[in-house]
Amino acid sequence: MASTLSSFWDQTFFIPSPAFTAKNLPDQTGKIILITGGYAGIGLSLAQILYSKNATLYLAGRSASKATIAIDELRRTSPTSTGRLEFLPLDLADLTTIKPAAQQFLAQETRLDVLVNNAGVMNPPAGSVSAQGHELQIAVNVYAPWLFTQFLLPILKSTVQIPGVATGSVRVIWAASFAIDAVAPKGGVLFDEETGLARGDLGREKAYGQSKAGNVMLGVEGARRWGKDGILSLSFNPGNLQTELLRHTSVIQKALTKVLMHPVEMGALTELYAGWSPDIAFELNGSYIVPWGRIGRYNKDLEEGIANGNAEKLWKACGKVAEDFL
């Protein structure tokens, strides 16, 4: 409990000023960035920074209409940008959409500098499941991003080899949350003994915490597997923010957000640090980034869960869920 309160205090109230902002970001001409959920909330705020620096952005998600509005806004706010903006249809609640989305991207591009696994769902109505019948939060926040990343891994690896690409600049970043400290189960993820998959019977809040702990585990395990290929894999807590993730919360919870939550623009700086700060060298691969861009630590329970093999176990569970969709 003391550790949780300390983390909450440190990541909510007494947060150091951001060390890496748009002013520090060099020109991104020629860079290709893919952001899931990039047309709303934190993803859109990050896109605004990157597009202003001439990056080419793929905004992946379900809603073409929302993406069109976001793209118009980005062009309006950065009229001199030489970057490109593309919408990529992707529904993380349905694994059948993952491969077509990746194939569409791969048919259009020959490099991918940063993959931002930003999209997620939080506390949906009780009993919500994905198209494949998995608890919705673990499906959208963990299983689908893992599968999407697998399809994009070859282009990430080949981007590392492009002449002029800076060491450590090709990255995969995974959106976690303070929920890993507040509501995740002991060990981060609880596994069903019969199926080997993450349990889906934990209740909405704990299931959300489990999915976010899962994102930390994917960051750690990705670093272990891909570090030799020159790819950085990191997780981040963007901060307690006023975003669309709160759409399923109660009236009381929404009222509390006005006191405890920060503007989404601040969360974008956490993502910016995770994806672009040159301070993150390979010895920090697998790190957990906290607001508004600094190396943090997750709680002892999660640390022990990872040390005891839960990250590798989750990776295998993702593979089992995805085997019919590869």
From TrEMBL:
This is NAD(P)-binding protein. The keyword tRNA processing does not apply. Pfam families: adh_short. InterPro entries: NAD(P)-bd_dom_sf, SDR_fam. Keywords: NADP, Oxidoreductase. Transmembrane segments: none annotated. It comes from Dendryphion nanum. The keyword Lipid metabolism does not apply. One of its GO terms (molecular function) is oxidoreductase activity. Belongs to the short-chain dehydrogenases/reductases (SDR) family. It comes from the Eukaryota.
